[in-house]
Amino acid sequence: MTLSASMSAALSGLNATKRQTDVISSNIANALTEGYGRRSVSLSVRPLGGVQVGAIERVVNERVIGDRRLAQAAAGEARTRSDALIRIEALLGAPDDINALTSAYARFEGALIEAASRPDVPARLDSAARAGVNLAAKFESISDGIQDLRLEADQQINREVTKLNSALEQVAELNALIFNSNSSGQDAAALHDQRQVLIDSIAEIVPIRQVQREGGKVALFTPTGGVLLEGTAAKIGFSSVNMITPDMTLGSGALSGLTLNGNPVRSDGNNAPFAGGSLHALFAQRDEIAVSAQASLDMMARDLVERFQDPTLDTTLGAGDAGLFTDGGTAFVATDEEGLSARLEFNILADPDRGGDSWRLRDGLGAAASGPVGNAALLQSLTDRLNESRSSASTATTGLSRSASGHAADFLSGLAAERESGEVELSYQYARYDTLLSTELAGGVDTDRELQQLLVVEQAYAANAKVIQTIDELIQRIMAI
Predict the structure, then answer these.
(1) Which of 10, 37, 391, 438 has an alpha carbon within 20 to 30 A of 113's alpha carbon?
(2) Distance CA 209, CA 65 (A)
């Protein structure tokens, strides 16, 4: 090899070590940067000797990233569902909670028993009436909480749809920039990093599969066939509301579903285009979990009303008269069960705080005047009716015969079991996500390995520098002859 060829080879080696040093420095500096893919320099041997520096390659495991994104979406769905069940369970209260629905039943029953033991004491009759008022108010409070939960889900859906549309537009823009960079031979690794971060943010909302296209572009699909990005970004549509009542449902048209490029798409079921992920779980929270809880609450409210809206129990009532608990102050009609818990009221005729007379608990709601103060027959009958095991005619009933408080206990027990099942699913999905994330990070930047590589590059630099130094000495000797 001639001196000039040796000099050329050594200079190419120095250039290669400089490029490698830059890349290693970038890797170490961005080891903790979200979305950063480890860089490596492609090197090859030149035909006439020396080192040819190729493109900067972004080293990532797309398969692991794809699996991690699916796990991320599944964990997001499990978390949203679990949180909804926890909040509904908190509205009802634990059995040992003084503010629980079952405690309100117990206080009402206890107050009736005390009043029956001394029906001549107005204070005990007043206490029984106020316990009934508080029981009805507890139903209303729980119903309001459930509808607030649905409204929060509706508004969060709107925020997530807005975020999803924005991220898809940005990914489409980055696709174009990456394509142009690749076409002109420029390094597009930083653009790939930005795109990965954006796609990861989409994966928090809906599960996605990424498919490579020409020129470095990508297409995005959901596992159930929804097209999010194929050349151009899809447009997802949704309209939120400012208030939700029990009668407002997706089926009635009062609440919005999703549209994909202007076409309505399903938002429920495992085969929906956006099934999986937090967006799907929010629809379940709004249209399934909370609706089911409201239906069960309305069933218990109906059971409570129908127990006491019975002329055979209180003979002072006529056909069609409201009983001890009413539907907004009037008699309950079986076809108006939906939302009953939000309208449940204690009969004003026996409410001493609203101008009523608590002695009507003892003598009958329709009594013209106060009767014998020692007559506890009706009070005892009210207590017995509250504890009587009976099934409900509601469509939401379990079909089991229970006391009034027994229906509440069954509801709370079923909800707790569902919540525990949700927490098990949440733990599994997060364990799966953490495992895949660890696998992904293990394939990323390893600072120890980068530093070791830096030592190798330093040795290569020293070798090339020694070659140049030797050539210089040889030239100096030749010049001195």
Answers:
(1) 391
(2) 10
